[in-house]
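Fold it.
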Amino acid sequence: MLSRRIALLLSTTMLAFSVGMVRAQPQAPDELIKQVSTDVLETLKADKSVKSGDLQKIIALVDEKVMPHVNFQRMTASAVGRFWRQATPEQKHRLQDEFKVLLVRTYSGALVQVKDQTVQLKPMRSRPDDKEVVVKTEVRGQGDPIQLDYRLEKAGDGWRIYDVNVLGIWLVENYRNSFAQEIGANGIDGLISKLAERNKSNRS
């Protein structure tokens, strides 16, 4: 469903962007998300290039502003699962590169669909000394609200996103299943080749 895809990728993008913002004092993750999500939504809706579907500009924006603020090594290692320990340093580097390209283009493709969606945060249950938290939100627009959960980790004086849940499906876990099948059939190099092939197809 298009609305579900938009919800997943837009909200992941907004959260990843929010945790990378420079700030004088640390904020609670839910407060930070609420503040920045509104700003990002307004910017996306007002950007003429985004509205006209300038995918290359959106890709550059996501790559520059969003991805540096995600714990991407943790995301990739979790998606690869137990096979990550078997990978060579070169294979780990290539896996991260190809996985990043896949997600950046997927996020960017969803951003061109942004219309009137809004994000509503739910009460968060956590302690001040927690190093990892789950932030729950709903994306609201046309159709039924879509529930989204986010896993964030404390990184220095800020927070970084490392997984997202849409309607009961965790992004990393979902990739882990398909990655395990590919590695089981064709090895780690086979997965790298598969990702590279998919990314090449997306570019064309």
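Strands lie at 118-121, 132-140, 146-155, 158-166, 169-170.
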